[in-house]
Structure formats: C-alpha cells, structure tokens
Design brief:
This protein has about 325 residues and is of the alpha/beta class. It folds into two domains: about 140 residues, Rossmann fold (3-Layer(aba) Sandwich), CATH 3.40.50; about 160 residues, 3-Layer(aba) Sandwich (Rossmann fold), CATH 3.40.50.2000. Helix content is about 40%, strand content about 15%. It has 13 helices and twelve strands. Helix 2 packs parallel to helix 6 and helix 7 crosses helix 10. The radius of gyration is 21 Å and the shape is elongated.
Length: about 325
C-alpha cells in the first residue's frame, strides 16, 4: 500500500522560480501527493531540507523522454491508479515540457500557453497581473480544484548539515553569524531586454568597508573573476554548494541583492533582504516575504548608495559592525 499518490512535477530551470514554487509544491503535498520533482541538478541541494526527491533532467530530447517513461513505469507499478488520473504537473511554460510528457505517455497538466494545450491532459488558465509566486500557487490550486490564499512567507527549509557547513565557512574567516553583510551583486542576463544590475554596487561595497563592516560575497563558478576584480574588499567564499549558500544567506546580518536567484533564496529562508530594483517589473518578480525591503525609485532611476547604506544601518544597527578593524 502506498502512503501517497506519486505526482511527477517538472520544475523550471531557474533558482528564483524554484524558490517561488515552494508554497505551491507544499500545497500539492498537503493534498496527498508524493512529489517526484524533475529539474536541474542544483535543485537537489536547494530543496534538500524539504525532503522531496529530485530527478535530474537530462539535456537531450530522447534522454528526457526515456527518463519520464522510466518514472511512469515505476509509479504505475507502485500505484494502480497512477494511469487513471492526471499524473504530471508542469511549472514551465515551454512547448518542449509538454511535448516531453506527451511522448512519455504521461497525463500532464499545465498552463495552456505557447500553443501547447493540445499536448496536455488539461490546460489550466494563466491569469495576467499576478506575482510569479501567486501564479504558481494558482496553478497548483487549479490542479487540485481548491481555493486558498498563498502564505505571507515561503519558509524555505535549510538542513542542519547545511547550516553547520555554513558556520564552519564563516568561522574559518573569523566571522560570526549575524555580523556581516552578504552581497549578491551579479544578475546574469536580462529580463525583457532590461539590465538588472545596480551600477553603484562597487561603490556601495567600498563605502561599507570604510564604515568598518564585514562584507561577504559568494560568487558562482562564472562570477569568481568578476568578484575578484569588482569587489576586492569583500571576503570571497568560492565553490559553495547552493544549499550551503542558502544557510549563509540565512545567517547574514543583512543581504543586499540585485534582481537575481540568490535574492529569492534569501527571501525564501527568511533573511533580512534589501532587494535593489531598477527597470524590471517588481510586481511580478520581486522576492516574496515579510523580511524583504524593496528598494526602487522607478523604472528609469536607481536608488542611491546613501539610501542603501542607511537601510543597512536601519535593518541591523547593533550587529553589523566588524569585531576588529
């Protein structure tokens, strides 16, 4: 006898979107589904403490379909009702996600967009003017046939092992939890052809250090050289796994971030976050949660360094001063 009905859930390919989908995933689980997630390899570390199994998605079409067929066979053997119901939910909007599921013989549901409705068991409405978290929440609600309000905070879990690893990294640098500023200054790519990077970030970090504050940066593999060149004053932690990065964000006194995946992780784990925005639509993509302060003047003007420095002091005035010069 199975404890819960298996449901294949295709995650999106971006860290921020995966974080924003967590409340929807929990909603599915609360209605008796055992989530079998298909996504990028980094999702395993990111979602480790949630307890969900992540099947790493291959790149090629043939391999992707073979993976889904294997999962279909496995879950059909475990659950006689697997084939009798909708058994996959697609968070991506892409045509290819629906095609993969159809070729694998799955009964998938998802947003009926990108001309893919005919590939789905049921196409679900994609409502306009929604924050992305709400959009994913409504997708899960429509799949379940329920109505509920999304949570105020994501409450993303961090495992004790990840937290201990983060504490060890900090101790090796002479840092204490809560007594450093963690910056996320990189924002790879553009959204709607708009730049998401605050141009004043280097000057901001120099002035933070001049105030005697400890500044930490955790660059991705493609960001190490940029971190070294642009932020030599910061303590750089290279090669940190995403789950441990989540714990570092949670342990920071305050996080200052561009519109980027780690900002969503910071909000997800409940870190104090100063989210700096420029021209991109914040109503749809801003980090979600009660610990987020959105710093945005408007679509054509960035906030000043003085404004962000003042916000850093207001967020944690008692815990951000360095212990030593």
């Amino acid at each position: 006898m199975i404890e819960a009905r298996p449901l294949i859930v295709r995650l999106r390919n971006f860290v921020g979107d995966t974080v924003l989908s967590i409340p929807a995933l929990r909603l599915l689980q609360s209605h008796g589904y055992r989530l079998e997630l298909v996504g990028k390899g980094w999702a395993r570390g990111l979602l480790e403490a949630e307890g969900w199994r992540v099947h790493v998605r291959p790149d090629g079409l043939r391999e992707r379909v073979a993976q889904l067929r294997q999962l279909r066979r496995q879950f059909r053997a475990e659950d006689p009702g697997f084939e009798a119901r909708s058994n996959a939910l697609l968070f991506p909007y892409a045509f290819s996600a629906a095609l993969d599921s159809r070729l694998a013989g799955l009964k998938a549901e998802g947003h009926a967009s990108d001309g893919r409705g005919w590939l789905l068991q049921r196409g679900l409405p994609k409502r306009e003017g929604r924050h992305t978290l709400v959009e994913y929440w409504e997708l899960a609600s429509d799949f379940l046939g329920v109505q509920a309000e999304p949570p105020r905070d994501i409450g993303m879990q961090v495992s004790e092992a990840q937290r201990n690893a983060a504490r060890s990294l900090l101790a090796a640098q002479g840092l204490e939890p809560g007594r450093f500023v963690l910056i996320c200054p990189f924002a790879n790519g553009r959204v709607e052809f708009l730049d998401r990077s605050w141009p004043a970030f280097p000057d901001f970090v120099r002035r933070l250090r001049a105030e005697g504050r400890q500044v930490v940066i955790v660059p991705g593999p493609a960001e190490v050289q940029g971190a070294q060149d642009l932020y030599p004053e910061a303590i750089r932690l290279d090669g940190v796994a995403l789950g441990v990065y989540s714990a570092l964000l949670q342990l920071a006194g305050v996080v200052v971030a561009n519109d980027t995946g780690p900002a969503h992780v910071a909000a997800g784990v409940g870190a104090r976050l100063l989210s700096i925005w420029g021209p991109v639509d914040a109503s749809r993509w801003a980090p979600w949660g009660s610990t987020v302060t959105l710093m945005r003047r408007g679509p054509t003007e960035w906030v000043s360094v003085d404004e962000v420095l003042a916000a850093v002091g207001a967020c944690a005035p008692h815990c951000l001063r360095a212990n030593r010069p």
